[in-house]
Write a structure and sequence with these properties.
Helices cover about 40% and strands about 20% of the residues. The chain has about 750 residues and is α+β, with helices and mostly antiparallel strands. The chain is elongated, with a radius of gyration of 36 Å.
């Protein structure tokens, strides 16, 4: 009995022990489950509410104004639109991003440009042309004086994760696109709560019947969790986590928020080595459209790509993409998302892909320059991930023309230049800068003949002797003491510096005796230029050059007057901008604004000017440079099709090592350098080398400039003088000319040589 009672007691103890063990296990399991659930909840909440993706900084060009009266042909405007990935339509365009040509008119449905800090509205615009000129522009409400053409994206500043996306808001997305994605990927998306057993069963049946995988059972929510939150691995535990996170995600966020995140995350193929992520980026890349401008056919094509972007790419596999698109359309019809008429119309639409952008890879030297400036302001990881928008001064059409002028011009020059070998080092190199002198905005920058071969930016870093290209600033130094009609000595004069005797020689080996200051400049007479510098005072010339921004050490020696010191093309451009801007030196800018993702301006470069000389003195030097083009050392520039007002100077360094051109109109300054990287002679003068490339560039950008006559500023007067005496001419003076003077130095007495008679 005692033993029996003991047994019963032990049995009860065991039951209680087992019960408490089960309770404890269940409690611990519940606690673990709750803890794990809370962990998943926290992970989802943190990632969903914080920054979701690494978005590289985008770099944009400036907008381009198109105005009535502009010397722009219909063909040139068409090329501009195609560079921005607009598509030509056979009939009146109804969708943004398309244009139609009818006779002498071009009608375009301009898409909106909406990026942080900048907005251009979508609108229908009609351009009417006559004799390669825009006669009038008609907007939605009648005739308009001008329209702005959207900027071109010229670069993205990627980090190690080379994925690119254009974030979209669910409110931007057209209903057809939402219906297409939901119909083909998860047609019960708006009904289930993240997990769809019916969808899994249906997929299993379809796969069994087909004998292969033809349908997926994952919901859109599960796909999002799998792609955004989890690592790609095949384990049962991962599937459990995926399901758990899907349920939590659905409990926390609305269907619209989940769908928006999904459309920004999905992988949509590759552009070279860069991943295309999200529907917004895919719409731009494949069809050249904003997502809200997609047609039903295009929406179905993108929705069909989600299953396998590599297999259904409309670029790589157009037939498979078309078949997949038709399947999406059929599914939408079956689900009642589109009407039979819409289905039939979309089914007949061909796949019209966007043209490859002419701006792709545009201005690599300029982009490097902007990147260097941005990296001084931001850490690399910020540029690669924070979605910054960088607006620059680049004018896309001028940038393309600059690259073409160098690419086509150098081989022509090389036909005239003897080569020592076929090695790349023996190639000619060039740099070209185009600048708006009133603002300092850099419109174009080319730093070499081929960025792929050499990324060294010669426009910034090649420091070479400027030769006679420095002459305008030597003559500027002299204007307080000399009139343009005064005489200087063009004679074989020897100068001694540090025990070394040097005699400047003219290019043609001839000396002309006494010549006017104007003739000395226009004919680029070396001996006369040195004489002028000596008489002005070399220390004064040095100070003028420093005031203009020359950074090289400058010695007050006679050879200074012939540019025997080093400058970079960018440095020289800044100096010439003073002459084209009433004596005000602008700070040369390439980067205008950096805007954050929430449209806040984080950095802005304003126009900065400081006075170097008077408007009157700047005009007199401009007048000398006009004379050099009309009848002097730069007259070959005029003969190469330059039929508008311009001022220019050419330069050649010793032994023909460097060929220079610097010239400007009232609204554009261009500096060109041609030479070799190893500083060997080229055999080219400034007129034979750099001026040819500059003339080619000016002809190509003629539609974008509006050259006017150079304005005579206050403080400058004109007088008819006797060339022989430099005094006011009388009726007896046979050699007369009209000359400009600073008002305080204008002659006030009549010719004493001929006046007496």
């Amino acid at each position: 009995m005692v033993r029996m009672r003991l047994f019963v007691k032990r049995k009860r103890s065991f039951r209680w022990y087992a019960l408490w063990t089960v309770v404890l296990v269940l409690f611990m399991g519940a606690a673990f489950g709750a803890g794990f659930g809370f962990y998943l909840y926290s992970e989802i909440k943190d990632r969903f509410s914080s920054r979701r993706w690494s978005v590289p900084a985008r770099v944009f060009s400036a907008t381009v104004p198109i105005y009535a009266g502009q010397g722009l042909s219909l063909t040139q405007l068409r090329d501009m639109l195609e560079a921005r990935r607009y598509k030509q339509a056979p009939r009146e365009p109804a969708v943004a991003g398309e244009f139609m040509i009818a006779g002498s008119s071009l009608v375009v449905q301009m898409r909106d440009f909406q990026f942080p800090g900048h907005f251009l509205p979508a609108q229908r615009v009609q351009f009417e042309f006559r004799r390669n000129k825009i006669q009038r522009i008609r907007g939605p409400k009648g005739e308009v004086p001008f329209v702005e053409l959207e900027p071109v994206e010229i670069a993205r500043l990627f980090g190690p994760d080379r994925s690119s996306r254009m974030l979209i808001n669910i409110r931007q997305v057209p209903r057809n696109l939402i219906d297409a994605i939901v119909s083909i990927e998860d047609h019960r998306f708006f009904e289930h709560r993240g997990f769809d057993p019916l969808g899994i069963i249906r997929a299993m049946v379809a796969d069994f019947r087909a004998g292969r995988v033809v349908q997926g059972g994952s919901t859109i929510t599960q796909q999002l969790v799998k792609n955004y939150f989890l690592e790609p691995e095949r384990r049962f535990s991962r599937k459990v986590v995926e399901l758990s996170m899907s349920l939590i995600l659905e409990a926390l966020y609305s269907k619209e928020e989940i769908l928006e995140m999904y459309m920004n995350e999905i992988y949509m193929g590759n552009r070279g080595a860069v991943e295309i992520r999200g529907i917004g980026e895919a719409a731009r890349y494949y069809f050249g459209r904003n997502v809200d401008d997609l047609t039903l056919s295009e929406a179905a094509t993108l929705a069909g790509m989600i299953r396998g972007p590599a297999n259904y790419s409309p670029i790589a596999h157009p037939e498979a993409a078309l078949e997949r698109r038709n399947l999406v359309l059929k599914r939408m019809l079956e689900l009642g998302k589109i009407a039979p008429a819409e289905y039939d119309a979309a089914l007949t639409q061909p796949l019209k892909l966007a043209n490859a952008s002419a701006a792709s890879g545009l201005a690599p030297y300029f982009v490097d320059y902007v990147r260097r400036q941005a990296q001084e302001l931001y850490a690399p990881e910020v540029l690669a991930s924070d979605g910054l928008t960088i607006y620059t001064t680049l004018q896309p059409e001028m940038a393309m023309a600059a690259e073409a002028a160098v690419r086509e011009g150098l081989p022509e020059l090389e036909k005239k230049v003897p080569r020592n070998s076929e090695e790349p080092e023996d190639d000619l190199q060039a740099a070209l800068l185009a600048i708006q002198p009133k603002t300092g905005a850099i419109y174009a920058m080319v730093g070499g003949r081929d960025y792929a071969e050499s990324s060294f930016n010669r426009a910034l870093f090649a420091r070479r002797q400027a030769g006679s290209a420095i002459a305008p600033f030597v003559f500027l130094s002299a204007l307080e003491s000399f009139k343009l009609s005064d005489k200087v000595a063009d004679l074989p004069t020897s100068y001694e510096t540090n025990g070394v005797t040097w005699t400047p020689e003219n290019f043609d080996g001839r000396y002309r005796g006494q010549v006017t200051v104007r003739d000395a400049f226009e004919q680029s007479l070396n001996a006369a230029s040195v004489d002028l510098a000596i008489r002005t005072g070399l220390e004064k010339v040095v100070q003028t050059l420093k005031d203009l921004g020359v950074e090289s050490p400058l010695l007050p020696v006679p050879s200074l007057a012939l540019g025997a010191f080093q400058v970079s093309p960018l440095e020289l451009a800044g100096m010439y901008a003073v002459l084209d801007n009433d004596g005000q030196k602008p700070f040369l800018i390439s980067l205008k604004e950096i805007v954050g993702e929430n449209s806040e301006v984080q950095e802005r470069r304003n126009i900065e000017l400081f006075s170097v000389t008077s408007p009157a003195s700047a005009f007199l030097i401009t007048s000398l440079m006009e004379g050099a083009v009309e009848r002097g050392a730069a007259r070959s520039f005029r003969r190469r099709g330059i039929d508008f007002k311009c001022a220019a100077q050419v330069g050649t360094s010793s032994e023909f090592r460097d060929s220079w051109f610097a010239g400007f109109t009232t609204d554009l300054l261009v500096v060109v350098w041609v030479g070799r990287d190893d500083n060997r002679p080229t055999g080219l003068t400034g007129a034979q080398g750099a001026a040819r490339i500059a003339a080619r560039f000016f002809r190509m950008v003629r539609p974008w400039i509006n050259p006017q006559k150079f304005r005579v500023p206050p403080g400058v007067v004109q007088r008819i003088i006797c060339v022989d005496s430099g005094q006011l001419a009388t009726i007896h003076c046979r050699n007369q000319k009209l000359e400009y003077f600073l008002m305080n130095l204008a002659p006030d007495s009549y010719c004493t040589i001929h006046g007496a008679r």
